[in-house]
Amino acid sequence: MPRPNLISLFNSFLKLGGETAVVETHGYRRKKLTYTELSATALFWSYALSGQGVGPGDRVLLWGPNSSSWVACFWAILLRGAVAVPMDAAATIDFVQRTVLEAQVKLILRDCQQPELSAGPPSLVMNGFHDVSATPEPHALVDPGDNSTREAIAQILFTSGTTSDPRGVVLTHGNFLANLEPLEQEIVKYRNYECWVHPLRFVSLVPLSHVFGQFMALFVPPLLGATMVFENSPHPSEILRTLKRERATVLIAVPRMLDALRNALEQEIDARGWRAWFTSAYAAAQGEPFLRRVWRFRRLHRRLGWKFWAFISGGAALSAETEAFFKRIGYAVVQGYGMTETASLISLNHPFHAAQGSVGKILPGREFRLAEDGEILVRGENVASSYWQGGAIREASEENDGWLRTGDLGELDAEGNLRFRGRKKSVIVTPAGLNIYPEDLETALRKQPTVRDAVVIPLASGGNAEPCAILLLGGTAIPGSVSSQEALAQAAVDSANSHLAEYQRIRRWLLWPDPDFPRTSTGKPRLTVIAECAAKLLSVPASSDSESFTSLTSFPSLPSSLKDLSSLDRVELLSTLEQRYNIRLNETQFASAQTVADLKQLLAHPAARRSDYTYPRWSQFAPFSLFRLLVYYALTWPATLILAHPKIIGRKNLESIRGPALFVANHTTRRADIGLILFSLPARFRHRLLTAMGGENLREFRHPPREWFFAKRWLWRLNYLLVVSLFNVFPLPQFSGFRESFRFAGESADRGYSILVFPEGVINDRATPEMVPFQQGIGLLEQNLQIPVVPLRLNGVWQMKQERRRLAHLGELTVHIGVPVTFPPDTPPAEIAARLHSMVQNLQSPPSEVGRG
């Protein structure tokens, strides 16, 4: 039975109940919402919209990156019978303002990272509310009535495309349902098998402002009771980490991201010394059954997680090489074809019967044909019938009897699979009257190992055109001199030409001056912008060679020596380099780089591992946690009570904290400090406390020098195991690798562990008990964890250490517990560190209340 509207999907949320609906990350923390919680949040926002006077038919702009708040607000808009106007998080202010005026937007729902428009309608921060427990009663919600039928408008999507000016595509509930219902009927056939892999987890890299991202993240998961995981980082290593950590089933991505993932896996294969094995296995896997290929490439499947089995690609054409790569190593690759005007889909591959090189069979319920020149034509309920122009709806032209001319060229094979041929407008007609398809040339160029990406544009020639290739060289290497780059580019063009027909050959080419092409939100190169820039570059002489590393990295004040950079400066430089060159660097090797030449060498040969430190997750497993508690209460607790008998001041300050906290304290001794703090904390924190320890020291314990006598080496390794087991410590290096340490702290906080850090970074061996300034890394950690911070101060320990005493006088040792504090997300790390230092420093005067452990 056909669905009446999209809200019928939302009504299924309560049936799914406690199943996880959305998973996202905030800093180093992981947040999840169940379908019940997502439903409550959507109802909350629907009620909030009513307070802003939003009613049926009103337009509401949704502006921000993928998040659970975005999803909830989208459903809230539909529940009001209003119209969503999605906007890409990276859209320019000018484009947003033009869209607001064009669509006559009544309200803006924006992410906290997006700016408020100086002139325009009011706005609400969609992730600015944390308590949605006050869900409105059903009678407080408006009945959308006719504004939620299949013919009602669900959203207006303003898209710039790759070669045209922005325009608003009006999409109805019925447009989406016409694509969704055939999939739902097919899903029913396999529902009995879903229990074996439940829950399905989709990781989406496609923005929700794009119709493909909406279709796969908003509408398909409720049909399966699936979990949607949002990963907003473009770095392949982060994506691979998310796939394994979340035990993902499917990755939803645009072709460019799949190309990047393939390159990342290839680099890892080389870095781990697997190339010989991989080459042999790849050749042997040709024609093998699916499960046999999975087992043959189990090293790679272990890297992505054993539950992961499929890629879903859309938004552009996937390269044949990338599709063949992932299929050969034992993954399903599902491609679809569609456009905004068709509510995402025209054709789709069956996940279990995909034809390689095709974009699948035409979905039921629509008419399809190829024009004489091969252009794809389609009509049906999924096709948008109107556009938004001049502040009003304008019906699409009826001159083609309702057929949508896609502007794309295709062909059908003998099995009825659609194969994408390219853009009709992109066809280059040579002076000889021959047609050149840029996609053919781009494919030949991308096969060259030195070419990271390429586009081919037409250059005017005698009333016709000739192809000009725009090249991006090298995936990881820093460009060398201009002459060396040109030599690599010429060699790549010559090699590509050897595989092309004479009339297709590339005679003009240009190196793109930036690290990447300007792209749309789905990764498509903006051909108009590229063509305009290329025309200007081809009309002027090439610029002189510049070896300035500062200009390459956009790091404004990079000195010739890196020794004077602070830890935060190094974080900024590291992030800038990784983002610009789309790679992940080994932080330990990065810390050892002292000159610009060292950085160039590191970027030219990035290592496989992100860090040289080991993070002992095993110490948090139940057997080790139980062992730790038994040893603590049998030995450590009595010893602390007898030898130290400390006073505990301010324990009541912890009563308001229910979740994990970040404890910061001064540091005087290596082991006594931890014992005193454990003694002072309530059991709910004491039993689940993760302690930061100098990463360099822990690494030396775990990997003592090889020249040492073997007995001494094993003694140090045993010391490492005891320290980790008994105190649940993790490495927090002073100079490198601390981002991985912060990430581990975030994962532990998600599991309910509080974190103990000594931000001075050193033990107080000075002649006075005064503290040194806190390291700024503590500010960066709190900025990304966003949990309450509890200042602690240990008094009296320094005096005992100076006098070399093990037994404290009665009342000599005190542990002061300060008032928990939180910091706004935009507080600078240096300011957080300074304020925490001041708070711990001032914990001198004991309050009246004193407790015992």
Which features would summarize this protein structure in a list?
853 residues, alpha/beta, Rossmann fold, GMP Synthetase, Chain A, domain 3, 4 domains, 9-stranded mixed sheet, 8-stranded mixed sheet, 29 helices, disordered C terminus
Task: Specify the overall morphology.
Answer: globular
Average pLDDT, rounded to a whole number, is: 83
Question: Can you tell me the number of structural domains?
Answer: 4
Provide the low-confidence segments as ranges. Answer: 131-135, 475-479, 541-557, 845-852
Amount of helix:
25-40%
Going by CATH, the architecture of the largest domain would be 3-Layer(aba) Sandwich
Which percent band covers the strand fraction?
15-25%
CATH class of the largest domain, anyone? Alpha Beta
Number of distinct helices: 29
Side by side, the strands of the main sheet go 2-1-10-9-11-12-13-14-15
**CATH topology (fold) name of the largest domain:** Glycerol-3-phosphate (1)-acyltransferase
- SSE class: alpha/beta
Radius of gyration: 30 Å
N-C termini distance: 65 Å
Major β-sheet profile? 9 strands, mixed
Total count of strands? 34
